[in-house]
Structure formats: structure tokens, C-alpha cells
Design a protein that fits this description.
Chains A, B, C, D, E, F, G: One of its GO terms (biological process) is proteasomal protein catabolic process. The structure is a homoheptamer. The first copy, chain A, is α+β, with helices and mostly antiparallel strands. In chain A, 40% of the residues lie in helices and 22% in strands. Chain A has one domain: 4-Layer Sandwich (Glutamine Phosphoribosylpyrophosphate, subunit 1, domain 1).
Chain lengths: 260, 260, 260, 260, 260, 260, 260
């Protein structure tokens, strides 16, 4: 670390307090933890479908590949991809499951994706305001089908920010993936200029999955095999959150290769 | 940071204690956090109408524009625009909703805007006196129609100060917006000199909305489109807090352009 | 800050501990916070009347003048002027209202002014002895009519000191105002030498109000308009704490001008 | 503060811990706070009478003289003079009143002076052992009539030390007053050599009061008027703690002047 | 420690906070504690069998060899090998036993190995997020037979990461052991290329045990005697967690020697 | 304080933690506090009698001599002499009284001296292990008659060490007094060589008292008067703890003078 | 302390956190506290007998020798020798007694020695993980007869490590004593090579006691008298924990002298 960096923070980064510039350094360092995790995740929302996709990188050939996943089911109808510190990821998912279960108990119906995203973000905000714990070093991309609004895609970061997205990315290559996705959506929009501000893009199920995959391939600069990719999906046909089976990923990879 | 700045604070800014000059640095840094958020918000109170307006800046083209808002409904009759750190904004709104709901439960009628503003300010003050948490990096402009007093406009800052206003501003261009508004209100007052100290200005619904919009346009130095602006409104005709639909914003923009 | 100032405090000012000279620096800095607030308040106790007066300085022309006040009603019969950090002022008033309400519940009669002053001072003292919170940066001047003792005027400071006064001042020009008041009371006493030590001065209602106003005018070195002044009053005729209406302030200003 | 002083304490004075010399610096600084308060108090125990006396210095001519007192009634039968930080004084008196009331509730008779003194001292000791609060910057001289032992005079200091005395002093001129009192008691003893070690000196009511007054006059080097002195008294004739009325103080001053 | 190392951490390693690089130093130091414990442990999962193996190094010839073990039974059906700080190991095992017992009480059946592993990892994560305690300096390799999934092997580290493995290692020679195991599994896979990603390797009971032993022998560079090795085992034939008796270890050592 | 002393402690003395040499500095400084109190106390255990003796130094001639004592009754049958910080002494005695009362309530008989000594020592140990409070700066010498063991003499120090003694000392001249007592006991033992290791020395009541007095006289290098000495005593004849009346002290002083 | 030592620890030794090398310095300093206590203890386990032995060093000739002991009874059937800081020793023994009593209450039979040792070690581990208290500066050697396993010998250290032993040592000369014991056990084993790994050595009662004594004599380099030694013993004949009477120690010393 250069001494000028130190001079810039001067102790404000050791706890949850404002720096003279109004910054919260611990939050910024949590973002660094996410970037340095080495993975990139993608979320894409289509007309009837919403997917999360991420690399499946087995750090060690001896690991049971089934036990390495960044994609988690929260309820039968809501799932997410977690990018960042793995134990923080699991801790956040555990809390999300608790929130969802308690909501179902209390109100008798499943928690809508946006309500769940808001609650998770509220918990993340607390870790940026109170001195008792550090922020979580993880970024959640959450998907589900809202009964009224259709496919939903949210991103929740360590600062406690949550937003709906047409498509988004998190992790090491977040910036490159976002650029790629924006370019793609621009060309889609330009074809379909009447629908400029509509979140529910006109992407079909296949297009949605393939956009997620091609974004991963593009930013990682490598041909990915089906076993290198994890995809979670919800669609209005089947609103249950499911992991795309490896053979379907393979089929989509082939279609994608043919299309190009 | 220059060394002289450091010498000026000398550790008093690391916690909620007085500096030798009687300053609370963490509070001042929270104001910096608000300014550095990059947004400017406006509140204007008219004869029968009160509005909050702010820029709608979508940081990322892929974000679902519906999910980006700085304007929040607290009860059916009270709303606000939040300027500053977004998760702090949402956390403060959540607490405001709780306060309002609990008031309604206890007393059987809706919380008046001024009572709500006072309660939110009291909570903000606690964060400047106790060591358990930092101040919130957010400024709230709250509006509603008081049954007896008519349109009400309040601003609540991280120090816990709350005031009623004829018009006010928060955020990056707060100073410029305030100057613009003062000039406008001066010319209104000079025309209507009998009503010098009356908060309920003589502004009609259209004038109120247009003043909010023209202030934003003036300080941002740019022609704003309807989609770049968010406006929340309450009026004595319709005391419910509502978001102005984009087409009406468009209509007002056209009228404003014609007027000039 | 000069290095010698630092050497003089050497860390004793960062918490509620004694310095080697037996000083509590946080308390002294709280007084600085009061002085630097820019306002001056006056309390004057007459024969049958007691008033608090302060400047009404609207920092921003757009502020609803009604929402800027330094004078607060605590019960129907006790009120105060608060000088210093505004949110601290409101927080202290809130606690005072609670104390008064709880006293009334428990004993079935209104809390006497001196009992209330003592309780508020006790709370202020706690903030100078325990590490959990900083002292409040506010000075309260409290008035009321005691059933037996007649008009009462108390001042409560951040150190937890409270005293009864014939007349007192707080804020930026406290010293100048005190000098002015002493001189005035001296000339009154000299005329009425039999009554030297009696708190209940022989000032009539008009004299009491005018002394408060003329003190403000004198220390601020400016002709004040009725709208620049706030006055709270209790009298044996009408023991309810009321704000003097602007037209009566105007009348008193005229009388004062004529008298001089 | 000289650098050698700092070197001598080296951080041991910032909390309730032992210095390498076995000192508790915060306690010593509390004594400094008492000395720098500017007042001196006296307690004298006679045959049937015990008094506390102190200067009544009105810091500000506008203060209601009745509201400035250093002498407090704790129960109907026990009172004290407090020297040091005024709000700490009142806080300690409040606790003493609580202790006395709770004792009376529990045991059905009034708390004896020595028991009360011990309890107050125990509380003071806690502030020198636990980190939660600073020591109180006040010294209490407590008097009362014990049913069996007669007049009682105790001094309780910030270290938690309490002692019975024939006569004692606290505050700015404590040393000078103590020297004066010792000299006086020596001459009394020499006259009445049989009664050398007996606390209940042979001083009559008048002698007791006059010794307290003359001590004050001597150390302050000034002729005191009745209004400059406060005297609290208990006697076996009237065991209730009462404040000596100003006219009796005047009478005693006259007798004292005549006697000399 | 070189000064550059200090500069790199600069206080971020003294508590559970993020460094500017997004690192949690206390967690990294906990891993150092595990490595410096001097022991290496192995877990291997076969077709019907799963074993944990470790060195049994009696630091002192006088120690009762029976009291030195790194292998612990958690329930009748789940066991583990602990590598790192011994008391931390036992503390973690105690908590695991509690979790398992409470699960059995609540649900009426034995806790599955993967659920137990997750719960232990969740507790470890808490020690990396909250300031109340340091992370545990221990790595757990946990085995059991899942009713549906067959033999299971998990590793849980101080960061709170847990993973399923075909084979894994922990401790001083973790890297060398992992390399050796990977090479072995590669040659197994290459023979049985259809089964590339299947966790349940085709290793028979004897092969499983012998692979664990030969890994230990390889990385320690020494001929191990039966008394130098501890082996815990579960198999689908006998799902109870048992320690392999010394004579069977001896038999396996002989077979291994003959095979080579 | 020399800089080398500082270098030797380097912060380890600011709290209850081990120094690199395994020392607890706060405990050592508590011993310094005891030594610097200026008093010396003696305990001597005879055949049927056990006494504590100490100087009675009235720091101020005006103090009621009766209120200065270092000797405290804990129960009717157990008493002690306290040496060190006076308020700490009283605090410890208060706790001892509570312990004894609670024991009597629970078990229906008086707490034996050794049990009480152990409990007091346990409390003292807590102050050396937990960060919540400093050690007490006081050393207790406790005496009583055990129903079975006869006269008992214990010393409890700030470290929480407690021991039974034939004779012991505490305070400023502890070392000198101990040397003197050892020499005396050696000569007693040499006369009575059969009884070398027996705690219950053969000292008669008079010899016990006189040894305590002569030790004080020896180390203080001054002829002590009866009023300069306090003696607490228990004996098998009268197991109640009593203070030796001044006339008996005088008689013993005379006998002692005659004996020499 | 050399400056390089300081550089090596750099603040990691001021609290229970890991150093960059994964060390817990406070634990290491607790071991230093044990070594610097000046005593050495021995535990030896024979065929039917298990003993703890230690020096009895009376630091002061006036101390009642009966009150100095390092050997404590925990239940009728389990005892220990404590080496290190004496008050920490007693505190740990008190907790052990509580644990044993509570176990007996709950389960209706006496706590087995190994269960008790584990519980004590668990408590010691907590002091190495949580910031609330320092580790205890004491090492416990605990003995007892297990109903099934026969004589048992455990050592529990400040790190929370506990182990069963054939023989062990703690304190100043721990290393020398361990070497001596190892040599002796080696020669025993070589005679009885069939029984190499069996904890229950073939030592008879006399041999067990004499080995403990001769180890002490060897490392202390001095002829010890019976009164210089304390021995606690349990045997299968008499499973109650008893202190060996001085005359039996004497007899064993004589036998030992004759044997050599």
C-alpha cells in the first residue's frame, strides 16, 4: 500500500465512521473483497424468463463438484447467485431463508422477490451503520417471478443498495460484463424502439439463457463447457426456481455456437 | 487531505464528541456524504399543492428504471424525497413508516406531517449524541397536507434539524437551487406584498410544479426530459401522496418552455 | 488550533474524564457549541410576569417562519427558550415534556417550575459523568408561575448547573446581555433600596417585556422589528405559558422607542 | 502543563487504573476540581450543636440569591454542605436522599448520620474502582444528631474516604481553615485538659456557630456580612436540620465582633 | 517480522475488519496457526467407504497414547479429524456434538453429515464477522454415510468455508498431500473415464484406506508404523463411525508394502 | 519514573493482561498503593489468643479519633485489620460482611475464619482476571477462633493470595516487621523445639499482645502511647472479636517496658 | 525487554488475537507466569496407584505450614496439584469443585476424572478465545481412579490442552523433570517390553511414590525432607484422594535412600 493511500484514509477505514470526505471505507473494502474472489456472475431478465449464471470453478480437482455452487435456492420460487466471500454468502442466504420462512408463516403466502430483496438490503445497511460487525463481503443477484410483475432481477450489494435490473453482473469482471450487456441491450432496444424503458425485455427463454452464457464467455475470453457454468432459472411457465441441468446448458452452448 | 485539515480535527472527528470549537465532525462529514451523492432535490409548497422533485439518474442503462427512485411514500398521505446514501435513505424511510403505522394504531388517525417530521428528526439527533452508531448520510424532504394548516413541506438533516419551508433543496447543488428559489419567491412576494410572511404561497398547482422543475433545470444547466425527473405531489384536492405520471411531467415541461 | 491549546488538553478532552487541573473539557466544548450558535436569549422576571425573549433569525428566506422557534411550551404552565444546537434543544424539550407528564400522572398536579428545572439539570449532569453520551450543546432558560412563589426564572446549562434568576441571558452575546441587565437592575434596586435581595423585582408587565426587548436590541446593536423577536410569557393573571403575539411585540417596541 | 507532569502520569490518569506508584490520578484530579471551585466550607461540632457553614457567593448579581446554596437537607434530621462541582453536588445529594428514604422504608426509623455517611462513601468508592464513570468532583460535610452519640460531623471525599470530625473544612482554603480550627481547638483543649480526646467538644451553641463564622472570616480575610454566609445547624434541643436565619447570623456576627 | 509486512497490514490484522485490499487478516493468521501445528490429516472417500487419517505424534513419551487423538466421534454415525490448535479442536467438536444432539431431539433422526458440516461452518463464519471472539485455529475434516448419497467427506476451515471432497488434506503438508491425492485420482479417473465427475469414486474399502495411508507416508517421507497412524472410518456396511484398530492398520500397511 | 521502567512495562501495566514475563502489573501497583499508605499492621497468633494490631495515626487533630480505625468487625467472631487505601478497605469489609451474613443465613452457623478468608481472596482474584475493575489496593489480616482449630490468622492480598500465619505484617514497614517477628518466633521455637512446626505457638495472651506491640514499636522506632495503637483480639476464653480497651493497651505497654 | 522482542510481538500480545505467525501471545505469557512461580510438580501413574507430588516451600517462616499447599481435593475421589499463580490455582479449583458437584447432582454418580479434566480444559480454552478475561496462569495435574480404567493422570494447561500421562511435570523445572521421568520409564519399559504402550505401568504403590519423590530430588538437586514434600494419592485399594501423611513420606524417603 502506498503511503499516500494511508494518508487518504487515516484511520477512518478501521470502523464504520465517516471519513472527512463522507466516505465509509469499510464498505469500499468489502467491494474489494468481492472483486478479488475471482468469479463473475450474470443476471438476465427476459420476457418470461429470468436467469442467473456464473462460472463454476472447482479450485481443487478433489472437491466434490456438487458441493461447489454459487447459486442458492431461497424459497421454491426465489433463488440467487452469490459473488464474494463464500462463508459470507452462505450466512446471507441463511438469513434470507429465515426471512422468507417467517414472512410465509406470518402472511400465508410466499414472499415476493422485491420484498425479500428489500429486507436483505436492510440487513446489509445495518452492517454499515453499527459498530458491532463488519459489512458482508458479498453481492447477491436475486431472481424470481412476481405474480403481477413477471420476471424480476435484483442486485443487493454490501452497502445495502438494491436495484431491479434488466441484466446485471457482479464480481471480478463486473465492469466488462456490464459493458457487454449494455451493448447487447442497446441493439435489442434499437430493434424494438417502442419498448425502450420496459424492463421486461422481449428476450425469449433461449435468448435470455444464451445472453447470460455469451456474456460469461465474452468477459472470460474462453470457450466454456457446460460443466464450467451454473445457471439458475425461473420462468412464467415454471415459476419454481431451478438449476438448469448440464445437458440443457450444453444444448444452449451448441445453439449459441451455431448462431454466431 | 491536507495536513492542516487533519490538524484542525485532531481525532475529534472519529466519534460523536465535541471538538474544542464545539463542533461535531461526524455530523459534518455526513453532510459531505449527501453532497457527494451527485443528486439534487427540490421541494416547493404552493397554495393548495406541495411537491417534491428530483433528478432520476439511472446510473446504469440495464437498471430497471422503476426500481430507481428517490421518492418514497410513507403513508397514503405523506411522502418524501431522500437525498444522500441510498441504503441510509431506505433505512430512514422504513423507520418513518413504522413510526407512522404505530401512531395510527395508537391514536386512530393518520400522523400529521409535522409530527412525523419531528419524530424522524429526534431519531437523527440520537445518532449525533450516542456512540452506538454513526449519523445517517441522508437528507429528507417530507411533504403532506395537514388537515388544518394545508400543504406542508419539511426538511430533516443528519444533525436532526427539521424545519418547515416554502421551498427548499438538498444535495449536490443545494446552494444554487436555494438561491434560485429565493430569487423566485422574492419576485412572487414583491408582487403580493401583503402576504410577506405567509408560508402558503399563492402558487397554483401548475406554478408549484413548474417552479420545482425550472429550479432543477436551472441548477443542472440542462434540458431535462420527463423521464429524467421524479415528482411527488399532495394537494388539498387530492390529499393522497402520488407520483406525478410521466405524461403530466411532459405537459408541464412543455408549458414551462412555452412560458419562458 | 494552536499546538499550545492541544498541549493544554492532551487527550483529556476526548471523553468525560478529569484533566489534571480538574476540568471536564467536553463540558467546556459544549458551552462553545452554544456560543457559536449565533443567537442570544434573554429571561426577565418581573413582579407578576416572567418572560423569555430571543432573536428570531430565519437563516433562509424560504423557511416557514412559523417553524423556526427557540421558544417551547413544556406544559401549559411552563415554557422555555433554548439556545445552542437545535436538535439537542428539541431532544431536551422532549425529555422535559416526558418528565412533566409523568410527574402529573404520579402526583395529580402540575410539576412546579423549580422541580422541573432540577430534573432537567440532573439529566444534564449524567451526561457529564457517564461515558455513554456527550453533554447536550444547549442552554435552557425556563419560566413559569409557582403557586406560592410567583414568577420563576431558571437557567440550566450543559454542566447540569441550574439557578433561579431575576434576569439572565444565554448564547453568543451572553456576557454583554448580562452586563446590560445588571446595570439596569442596579438602577432599579437603587431606586427601591428596601427590596435589595428580593427576586421578585418590582417590574411591571410592560417593564418586564420592554427590558427583555431592550437588552436584545442593545447587545445586537440593531433596531429589531417585531418579527425578529420571539417572546414567551407567564403572568400571575394568566399563568398559562403563551407566546406574545407579534402585534403586542410591536406595541411594546413602539412604547420602548417612545420611552427612550 | 509541564512535560514532566505528563511524563509522570503517562496515561495512568486517563482511567481508573493504578499508576506504577500505586496512585489513582482521576481521584487526585477530582480533588483539584473541588479546590478550583472557589468556595470554602466549614463544619464544627459543639457540645449540643453541630453546624456547617459556607460562603454564599452569588456569581452573578442577577441570580436569585435563594437559588444559590451549598447547604442541602437530606432528611429532616440530616443535612450537609457540598463543596466542588455544583451539579455533582446535587447528584450526590439526590442519591443520599434516596438512600435515606429507602432506609426509613425498610427499617421504620430515620437513618443515623454515620450510616448515611458510610453509604455515600461506599458509592463514591465505586466510582474509583469501576470504569463506567468518573469520580464525583465534590466533598460532602454532613451533620446530624445521633440519638445516642449526640452531634455528629462527617466529611466524605471523592476517594470515598469518610471520617468523623470535631471540626473540618473543604474547598479552596481547606488547608488554611484546618490550621485555624486546629489552633482554636488546641487552645480549647488546653483549657479543658481532661477532655482531650473527646469529640463532643465543650463548645456551646453560640461558640460553635461563632467558631465556624470566624474561621470563614479568617481564611477569606474579609469582613463577611450575614448575607455572605450560609449556616446549617442541628442541635440536641432541636434535632431537625435547619438553616440559620439571616438575622441570627447577623446577631452572631455582632457578638463575634464584640467578643474580639 | 519485516517492516514491510507490518506496512502491508497496518492495524487491519488486529481485529475482524477489512483491509484496504478486502482481506480479513485474523482469518489468514488462523490458517497459519493450523499449518504450524505440525500435523497433516487426510480424508478419502471411496465407493462404499470414507476415511479420515492422521499422524499420531506423541509429543512426549510419557503421555498416555490413548489420550492423544485428532479423531473425534460427533455422533454414532459422524466423525472427524481435527487439525490445528488442540483446545480449539475440542471446543469445536463440543459444539458439533451439541448441534447434533439438538437436531436429533428436534427432528427425531440423526443429523445428516452435510447439514452438520453447514452448521459448523456457519458458526465459524460468525467468528470472522463479529468482534467478540477470534476465529478458531482449526480445520475439520468430517465424514459420515448419508442415507441417500452414501459416503460423504467435508472440510470446514476457519474462514467458515465448507466443501465436499473426493479426498482432501489439512495441516502442515496440506499442499503436498493434495498434489499427491490429485495425481492418484487422476490416474483412477483416466482408467474409469466415464465416471469423471462422480464424487463416489470407485475405490474399494481397502483402496480407500490404503490411499489415505500412502498419502501420509508420501508427504511425511517416512515409513509409518501402525501406532503412528489414526484412522476413522464409516462404510455403507457399517455406517457407525469407528476407529480402525491398530492391527487392521498394520494389515493395511503390509498390503500396501506388498502392492508397491 | 525512569524511561527504562516504562520500557519494561510498555503498556502491559494499563490493564489486566500478562506482560511478556508473565507479570500482572496492575497487581504489583496495587501493592505499591498499600505500601505508600504510611501505616503498618501486625497479626500475631498465640496459644489461645490471636490479635491484630496497627498504628492509629490521626492525620488531622480535628478528626474524631473514634472514626479513624483500621480494625473492623466482620461478624461477632471474626475481625480484621485493613492496610492500604481506606475506601477500598471499607468496600472489602462490606463485601466480607455480606458474605458472612449470607453464609449464616444459608447454613445456620457462623462462617469459619478460613472459609471467609477464602471467599474474600476469591473476590480479589476476580479483580486480577477480568477487565471490569482494578484490583483493590488493600491487604487484609483476618483473625478468628475456629471451633476445632483454635486461633486463626490469615492474610489476604490484592493478588488474591491468602495464607494462614503464626504472625504476619502488612503495609509500609512490612519487611522490617516480618524480620522482627521471624527472629522472635525463632527464639521461641528454639526454646520449645518439640513444637517447631505447630502454628499454635505457645504464646500466652499477654505474650501475644506484647509481641504485636513490640513489633510495632520496633519498626516504627518510637515509643508508642496506648492511643497510638489499635488492637483487635479473639481468644478461646472469649471468642467474640473485641477491640482491646485503651487502658489494657496501656497496661500491656507498661508490662512490656518493665520486661525489657 | 529487547526491542527486537517488542518488534516480534508488535501489539499482538495485548489481547487474545492471532499474531501474523498464528500465535496467541497471552497464552505464551501465561506459561511464563507458571515457570516463574518457582515450584515444580510431578505426577506419576502406577499399576494401582497414582500420585501427585510437589515441593512445599514456605516462603515465610511465619506462615502456618498447613495453609500452604499446592495439592487440592476436588471430590472425595479426585484431586490435583496446581502449579503457577496461586490465586488463579484456587479459582480454577473452585470451578472444578462446582463442575463436579453439578455433575453429581445431575447424573447421580461421581464425575469420572477424564470428564472433569475435559471440562476444566474447555473453560481454559474459552479464556484463550474471548476478550473478556486473560488466560489463567496455572497448570493443573489431576488424578483419580476411573472405575473401569484404573488410575488416571491428566495435565491441563493455560492453552486448554489436556492429556493423559504415565508421568508428567509442571513448573520451573518441568523440562528437567520430564527428561528424568522419561529415562526412568524407558528403563522400566525395556525390562517389560511387552507392555510398551500401556499406560498402566507396572509400578507398585511404593515404586510410584518413590519415583515421584526421586524426580523432585533429582531436579531440585537437594536432599528433601518429608516436610518439604506434599504428596496426594489415589489407589485402587483406597480410591479416595488422600494426602500422604508426613511419616509415610519419611518412610518412603528412607526406603529410597536405602535403595540407591
Amino acid at each position: 500500500m502506498s503511503s499516500s493511500t494511508r494518508a487518504g484514509s487515516a484511520g477512518y477505514d478501521m470502523s464504520i465512521i465517516f471519513s472527512p470526505q463522507g466516505k465509509l471505507y469499510q464498505v469500499e473494502y468489502a467491494f474489494k473483497a468481492i472483486k478479488s474472489g475471482g468469479l463473475t456472475s450474470i443476471g438476465v431478465c427476459g420476457k418470461d424468463t429470468v436467469v442467473v449464471a456464473t462460472q463454476k470453478k472447482i479450485p481443487d480437482k478433489l472437491i466434490d463438484p456438487k458441493s461447489i455452487t454459487s447459486i442458492y435456492k431461497i424459497t421454491d420460487y426465489v433463488g440467487c447467485v452469490q459473488t464474494g466471500i463464500v462463508p459470507d454468502s452462505k450466512s446471507q442466504v441463511s438469513k434470507a431463508i429465515e426471512i422468507a420462512a417467517s414472512f410465509h408463516n406470518k402472511f400465508g403466502y410466499h414472499i415476493p422477490p422485491n420484498v425479500l430483496a428489500k429486507r436483505i438490503a436492510d440487513l446489509a445497511q445495518l452492517n454499515t451503520q453499527h459498530a458491532s460487525a463488519r459489512p458482508l463481503g458479498v453481492c447477491m443477484i436475486l431472481i424470481g417471478i412476481d405474480e403481477e410483475l413477471g420476471p424480476q432481477l435484483f442486485k443487493i450489494d454490501p452497502a445495502g443498495v438494491f436495484c431491479g435490473y434488466k441484466a446485471c453482473s457482479a464480481g471480478e469482471k463486473e465492469q466488462e460484463a456490464t459493458n457487454f450487456l449494455e451493448k447487447k441491450f442497446k441493439s435489442i432496444s434499437s430493434k424494438d424502439s417502442n419498448n425502450n424503458n420496459n424492463n421486461n425485455s422481449k428476450l425469449s427463454r433461449d435468448e435470455t439463457i444464451q445472453l447470460a452464457i455469451s456474456t460469461l464467455q465474452n468477459v472470460l475470453g474462453a470457450d466454456l463447457k457446460a460443466s464450467d457454468i451454473e445457471i439458475g432459472i425461473c420462468s412464467t411457465d415454471n415459476i419454481k426456481f431451478t438449476l438448469l441441468p448440464e445437458d440443457e446448458i450444453d444444448t444452449q452452448l451448441t445453439k449459441l455456437a451455431e448462431r454466431d
